[in-house]
Design goal:
Length: 391
């Protein structure tokens, strides 16, 4: 068995994967509310005679191989986005105001396709396969509570994929080490003393203090982090003041801190606290700072990233299996799975032509020809990890 054999088998399943993807596309649901999605996936697992367990809206299914060996997990997300899909799609969302605009419908369909391939060789499998269908990736994060519930118990490796419209169908990429940054939220309240604008000496101007703070925070990355280590602090919201002749006593600021390295993440959070305390003292204002933890950085196991690239090159050609040069500062809660066991997350090209509409866009329209590639490569990762794949 080699990757071309697997792709030929996956190609034969393309109509079924496409049909499932379109059925899932019609019923997009919010995180931890994916009840219709869960029911549809359970029906497909029942048809394949794959046993499973559920908690909340997630599904954990197990394919027991005929021979001893490692347990390898595959993960697909289930939730959708609060995006209104335009008219015209023949399988348009039936839940108005919601759309599978991030490709999770493709991920689930490809995972069911991989499951069907693996069930076809179950007796020969040198190990077991665990299928993780995860809710709430786009909102509060479903991976962390799944890990806490023990879904990775006994798992030796884990793999996940994400479609990407910046690549054509037939291309993939990933990278060893950090693939995605952390995603902490910053909330700041600056409290001063209000009064008439003609008598500023009687007041503490929260707007002036906020301006000083914003300028100072711009140095957090530029002067507290090595330029060779990716990080970004973006302040995207500011609110304060009610009248042009009244000194403002309250300003709120919101933003996000993202870093590719866990130690740098902690260092930058500490620096934000120091700067906020210092600016508040200098201005005579009270500054309340809250840093709400988001997803941790996604750190691919180097050997497993190399496995993806090697198998991708074998199937698609070396020129179509690329090492991503830099991490993305977009968040991805697959990070919690790969923090527990070795594994990797990789990107699957899904565009017919370039440039193409981005993820999270209401115009996102992936090419379903990526489905058999995704199913075949996920299956290949399992078999290669079990020592069953020919060179």
């Amino acid at each position: 068995m080699n990757v071309h054999d697997l792709f030929a088998r996956a190609k034969a399943l393309e109509p079924r994967m496409s049909e499932l993807r379109r059925a899932l596309h019609r019923i997009p649901e919010n995180g931890f509310s994916e009840f219709k999605t869960q029911a549809l996936l359970m029906a497909r697992l029942d048809a394949l005679h794959i046993p499973y367990e559920t908690e909340r809206t997630w599904i954990v299914a197990d394919i027991r191989g005929g021979l001893p060996g490692p347990t390898v997990a595959l993960r697909a997300e289930m939730d959708a986005l609060p995006v209104t899909e335009p008219e015209g799609c023949p399988f348009r969302s039936e839940h108005e105001g919601w759309m599978h605009a991030c490709g999770h419908d493709l991920h689930m369909a490809a995972q069911i396709g991989a499951a069907e391939l693996l069930m076809g060789m179950r007796d020969a499998l040198r190990g077991n396969v665990r299928l993780l269908f995860q809710p709430a990736e786009e909102t509060v994060g479903g991976a962390e509570p799944m890990v806490a519930a023990g879904v990775l118990k006994g798992v030796d490796a884990v793999y996940g994929l994400h479609v990407q419209p910046y690549m054509k169908v037939g291309q993939i990429d990933t990278r060893p080490g950090c693939l995605n940054g952390s995603t902490d939220e910053i909330r700041i309240v600056v409290r001063g003393v209000s009064g008439h604008a003609a008598r500023p000496e009687q007041c503490v101007d929260a707007i002036v203090c906020a301006a000083e703070l914003i300028n100072a925070l711009q140095t957090v990355v530029s002067r507290s982090a090595s330029p060779l280590m990716p990080a970004v602090l973006s302040l995207g919201a500011i609110h304060g003041g009610e009248a042009p002749n009244v000194i403002c006593d309250r300003v709120t600021i919101g933003g996000t801190l993202r870093a590719a390295d866990p130690a740098l993440r902690a260092q930058l959070k500490a620096r934000i606290r120091e700067i906020s305390a210092g600016i508040g003292a200098a201005c005579g204002a009270e500054i309340e700072l809250e840093i709400i933890p988001g997803y941790c950085p996604l750190i691919n196991t180097p050997a497993e990233a190399d496995r993806v690239l090697r198998l991708g090159a074998a199937l698609l050609g070396r020129e179509n299996a690329n090492v991503r040069e830099f991490p993305s500062m977009g968040g991805e809660d697959f990070a919690y799975f790969v923090a527990e066991v070795p594994g990797t997350f990789w990107h699957l090209g899904c565009s017919a032509d370039l440039p193409a509409p981005t993820l999270h866009s209401h115009d996102f329209a992936p090419d379903e020809r990526c489905l058999p590639i995704g199913a075949a490569l996920q299956c290949a990762l399992v078999l290669d990890r079990m020592g069953m794949l020919d060179a």
